[in-house]
Amino acid sequence: MPHARIPDFSQPPGFVALDTDRLPFHADPILAALDQHAEAWSVFKAAPDGEAPMRAEDDADSALMALLGTPCATRGGMLCLIRHLRWFLAEEAPNAVSHGDAWAIVQAREGDLSFCLGVEPVRRLPMALPSGRLLGPTIDLRPPLSPARYVGRALAAAGELLTAIAIVAGGSVFTGLATLI
User: Fold this and answer.
1) What is the DSSP string of 50-110?
2) Of 10, 34, 83, 174, whose CB is crowded by the most CB atoms within 10 A?
3) Could you tell me the CA-to-CA distances from 88 to 43, 82, 91, 103, 117 in Å, in that order?
């Protein structure tokens, strides 16, 4: 009977499943925590010298801890939190030591949410060609080239080109002579 309703016994009685897709985006509690942290951080950065920066720093730290402890209720809230945490990690990188354990928690939360949503930065590995050269995004750890090195590289490329032309031309001449025999 295709019209029969079979009850779902996988959940205990009285259990109510929350459908996070039906929760309106503006009702996500993470948005309020994001606003609170952004405001506390900007107050801390604008605080004048004296006692005010210490209080502002305490407020910013407590807002950060509240932000890290607030759950995301929607996918949009998760994306907003990832963007905010990436901004915070980039902005506060020089002061990472002063944040202590909170810095590691911020990195872990950003990494977990990025992995969960699949919004990790794409990192392509370089492809090795048969000649040994690498194609693709690579990190160049060599020092910047001096003008003398540019000339040296240009001469090396010219030598390779001349060698290739000699091999092709020589092969053509030998093929032509072989056909005459």
Assistant:
1) SSHHHHHHHHHHHHHHHHHHSPP-SHHHHHHHHHHHHHHHHHSGGGHHHHTHHHHHHHHHH
2) 34
3) 15, 10, 5, 10, 19
Backbone angles phi, psi at 135, to 5 degrees: -110, 140
18 sits in the region (left: phi over 0; alpha: psi -120 to 50; else beta) called beta
CB 72 within 8 A of CB 109: no
**pTM strictly above 0.85:** no
| DSSP 8-state code for residue 15 | -
pLDDT tens profile 53-70 = 888 888 988 999 999 999
Calpha distance 53→46 (Å, rounded): 8
